[in-house]
Request: fold
Amino acid sequence: MAVADTVAGSQVIIRSKNRLAARYAFWDINFETGRISLSSTGDTLSLGANRIAPESLVNLKPTAESIRWSFTENPGNIVVASDPPLCLAYKNGMVVEGNPVWLYRVNNAGNSSPWKIVSVNQLESFE
Reply:
């Protein structure tokens, strides 16, 4: 998961880590506040959306306006804390380069996306 640019409004997309600068793809997760912030912005920009509804594209928002996420409500999914049936998902369930990340209903049909959270000290490689 990465962004094309480190400015508010940038769309969150699926990107290969090959030849991708860390400033576009390293995220800080604050389990207390439920925020997922882009590290390179000093945590001033976080995951958000223009509206909290199914099929809304995820983008960077000022942290104060971002979505609060829950990591335990539905294990394997990252869900919207204020609307637990909605989760962070790959658009149309496809993990392909450039595919947008959006909000989608948690389901077992493959459209909700399981995420793996890896700490930086456990990251095997990042080119």
